[in-house]
Amino acid sequence: MTQLKCSANSCSSNCSGMCALNGIHVDGSSACECGQTCCGSFTPRMSSATNSVAYGDVRPETKIRCHARDCVYNKDMNCSADSVQIAGPGADRSGDTQCSTFRARG
Fold first, then answer.
1. What is the count of structural domains for the chain?
2. Which domain holds residue 67?
């Protein structure tokens, strides 16, 4: 699994910069740069709700299913990077996030 760090603090799965999900998917099948990718698993946090995941249950390792075909880390639709950064401070929707680790082939 990949070490995942996430700055999308408005996501309901974000717990102190780590993702509470066991796995996420990165969208951007025709992406040529990181700004054309996004975290397809992003779900906005409801302002009145608190995260129900206990911080002790969150681990930094997350399985990442990657739809960005032209990323050097995409191996059979799975991310092979040792560490991934999902950016999205102030994100209101999935499209406001991006995989900052994306690197185009060739």
1. 1
2. 2-99
Parallel/antiparallel/unpaired status of strands 78-79 and 74-75: antiparallel
Q: What angle do CA 88, 6, 19 make, to 5 degrees?
A: 125
Residue 75 lies in a domain: yes
Any domain includes 104? no
Residue 17: inside a domain: yes
- pLDDT digit of tens for each residue in the chain (106 aa)? 789 999 999 999 999 899 989 999 999 999 999 999 999 999 999 865 555 555 556 777 889 999 999 999 999 999 999 999 999 999 999 999 999 999 999 8
Length of the chain: 106
* pTM, full prediction: 0.88
Q: Is residue 105 part of a domain?
A: no
Q: Which of 48, 45, 47, 81 is nearest to 63 (CA)?
A: 81
